[in-house]
Structures are given as structure tokens and as C-alpha cells.
Predict the 3D structure of the following.
Amino acid sequence: MRRKVVLLMAAAPVAALTAAAALSASPSVTITTPKTNQKVSLRQNPYLAVAGTAAFADTTAGTTEFFLRRDGCGTSADNPHLSITSGTDGGDGCGLIIDQVGLVGDAAPQASFTDYPAVDGMPLAYDGTQPINGQVSLTGAQVGLAEVDVDLQALVGGNAVDIGSATGSAILDPTGASTPVPFTIQPNVALDGSDIQALDLRVTIHGPNVYSGFVALSGASWVEIPSYAASVNKSVEIPVDDPSFSNPTPARLSGSTWSVAIPTPSIGKHTIYASSTQGYDTSAPASVTFNVTK
């Protein structure tokens, strides 16, 4: 069931990916070798050296903060979600569960969780070398002990992946407006550098408490995802006489330059195309036309 929830999020990020590409610094590419109208002897050069430059957006490591938000409470449009912007939430203080007092004190798991899918901030270049920190603030009578389970899943390359889970607990404070329950999800190095297409935070509240399974929103509950300023996945590809890039050759990247050797094409006029890609963003193509002689 959880996998279906995450996969259903794939539809929204299609528009988000397009918008993010328009807002971020796009990669660019140039071809420096061969030169325009350069003559290349097929007999003397069975292989052709192709080279150029490429520019990409900065990939400085940092964090992206998502706020737990909800538009309503008990309506057909409650819309619990994650957003990189905070504000006043119509569903602030809406209940997940109402736990009984006692040694068990837990509702059935299938009745006690709420999914918060990200509605913006995608794609996200995930830094899997750092822990994920956050808090779910609880309100209500605030009597007893509350435990909050969080499970974070994502969509990477069209596949649902589990980033990690954690449990936080806190003695509820009946004198305050809400009680923050902090949590930490350990680093997931296996997913470091992944370009996340969609994100979903599942929150489950349980524990021996009275009338306290209510989530305080409006900026009180959040999760910070370690991330890079832009995708760390970069590439340059070149095809010959193929502006559609249907079967390109990958180039070797070294800093801001790239190079590759390809078999020299047949005698005649030819055009080499090049494009650079960073995550889901692809540059405008560059091209150069040259002549192959005997």
C-alpha cells in the first residue's frame, strides 16, 4: 500500500520538475574541437578528438526544510502535505488518533498514520551522508507520554525507495501550546546523490497519553532534508549527424571541460552536436560542422 502512495506522487512532480528546471541555473555546453569548417583527413585521423567546455549549477551541500501542512480538518479537502513554505494552516491541531490510557495505549496502525507528500521542492538532490532531523509538535490535552514514528520514502528513477525511519518520544507538557517531539533519521549513504522526484513522510502517533494525538502545524512541525544546491549527477553527450540525440556517445568530464574520441565519420560534411545534463535539466545543444577529406 505504501509503495502505491509514493508512486501516486509521481504525477505531480512532472510539473514540478519542469518548473524547477525553469527556475534553476541551467547547464550549458560548448564545442571547442573540431572547429567550424575544419578539414579532417580520414586517412591520417581514423579517430576524431572532440572536446569542449560545460558549466553546471553549484552543488554546495546544505539542507532543505519542509513544513508539515494541512489545509483543513475533517473535510474532503484536508490535504496533508509537505511544503518548503510555511504559513497558517487550516488543519492546525487536527487529530491523527486519540489514544487510550494504559500499558497498550495504541490504536491500530492502519488507523493511526497520516501521509504528508511533498507538493513542492522537487526535484531534490539528496545528501545521504548526513542525518535527517525534524520534529512533530503535538497539541491537545497533552497528558502522558507520546511516541511519534516517522517513515520517509521517496521516488528515485521512477522507483519507490525507503530513505529511513525513526521514533521520537516526549513527556507532554500540558502548560504549553504544544510539545515538540524531535526525531533523527540516520544517513542513507546508499542513496547519496540521488535525484528525488517525490517525497512522502508518514507520521504515526501512539503511546500512553490522553487526548493528545493532534499535530500542531503552522510552522511547528517540520523535517530538514540534507541536500545539495543542485544535482551532483552531471554528464555530456555527443552524437554525429543526429540532432535528436537518439544514440549519443558519453564524454569524459573533468571539471569544466570534457573530451571524447570517436571514429572519424565518412568523407563529406558532418555535424557534431553536444548537450550537458545535470539531474533532470538538459542544456540547449551546441553544434559544429566540419569536413572529412581523404
The mean pLDDT is 87.
